[in-house]
Amino acid sequence: MVVIMEQGASESEIEAVINNLNAFGFDVHRSSGVNHTVLGAIGVKPGFDIRIIRVLDGVADVQRVTEPYKFASRAWKNEPSILEIGSARVGGTEVVIMAGPCAVESEEQINITAAHVASHGATFLRGGAFKPRTSPYSFQGMGEAGLRLLRAAADRYGLGVITEVTDVTKVDLVYSYTDVFQVGARNMQNFGLLKVLGRKDKAVLLKRGLSATIEEWLMAAEYIMSQGNPHIILCERGIRTFETYTRNTLDLSAVPVIKRKSHLPIIVDPSHGTGLRNKVTPMARAAVAAGADGIMVEVHPDPAAAKSDGPQSLYFEQFAELVRQIRDIARAIGRDVPVAQATPSDA
Ligand code: PEP
Ligand code: MN
What we know:
8-stranded parallel β-sheet; 11 helices
């Protein structure tokens, strides 16, 4: 941490800052310039609130030199983390595709969607059984019956399962059906949930909160990792801005920022990111070009009849075309989309 004193700060103010830093266990290196005295505070104190120093008399500014997160940082682990989940490798050269409806609605709906997305290169079947809806009057999901249908459909077509866990009381139930826990945007700072997931041995896909900074998002990942679970995939899904022509603003610059700051894989969800079907494919292309390790998209056999997020759900043909397009882009940057797995396991 670097403390810059105000021009003309008195000797007693400088000494008070040094004494404060020493009391917190920092070694202090003092250098006096022509106008400013600068104090270098040496020592690693995770969680230290720099405002404690910023409010002291005579202090002009305080800058952190190290990141407030540890396990999620490149400083901790320089090479990219590659998560092996079933046959998938997330964070390597593969661009993984997670696809499926917003919510599991029926056996037929999830089965035909699984068959379609598997035959076009998806590795994971998504689908919510517990839906965190903005309105309590909207469809809340099928619960355990939905989890059962999702697992069966995924197994039939050789897919992994990713589904959302909305609160701590559902963790064990969801664990018994899923391969990857999804933590939704609305739960990114549900620290109790993050800590419980941090003690599990399954991967967690952590969505960025609606108005979370990238640092807050990495701190949420740190909650999980600090409990011992290093298997995390970050998911950019759009943030809230003043723009109204799209549901959210998909922050694709998060991809190169995360790649620089963290070793964790990052995927992009252009469905929630834009909220509109005709914007999903262009943003999926852009996400892959930006270096995302995968994409998550909503696909529905009859979007007009979907119980949730129909307007942003792709038609089957659109999904097939999206995969063709992102495969070309992936190849252009030395990556690939895994080949399709078409046949049901009991065929
Ligand atoms: C979802 O993936 O269905 C979902 C609810 O996403 P988010 O948490 O990003 O809104
Ligand atoms: Mn949705």
